């Protein structure tokens, strides 16, 4: 692992727990916690570019792809802009590690988030069994789940698996 890979990982290691706690309580990912990640990514990309002479194409594609994918979801109201901004940071950091990490990070995020949503849905349906199905399925404040924690979990699981299988 190079210094340029460590910079965004160190940033994410510092902010992961606070972001999870904040997002779980408020359904917000504050810019004050997310946006410095772009500076860490930029420093890392510039470092890679200067040290290797090659533009870090995989991290750029990964960041843009994850960001763009969630941006499309945000138009339907399924994702917040905090999730979209965090996706760019996670995609850029994962891309610095390699293409497998960049692919696995969002895949795991959606798997973990989907499983959590399924659990919440089942519990909600059991609690609202006296209501018509159309009302029982309704999303309310207590049935919404934040996606940021699952994005971060997916990132760290992808990192762990990459480290496990590439060392």
TrEMBL record:
Keyword set includes Transmembrane: yes
Gene3D superfamilies attached to this UniProt entry: 1.20.120.1220
Membrane found in the keyword field: yes
Domain Prepilin type IV endopeptidase peptidase residues, every copy: 12-114
Pfam families, per database record: Peptidase_A24
InterPro entries: Prepilin_IV_endopep_pep
GO cellular component: membrane
Record field: transmembrane: 6-24, 31-51, 57-77, 84-103, 109-126, 147-165
Coiled-coil regions listed in the entry: none
Keywords: Membrane, Transmembrane, Transmembrane helix
GO molecular function: aspartic-type endopeptidase activity
Name of the protein described by the UniProt record: Type 4 prepilin-like proteins leader peptide-processing enzyme
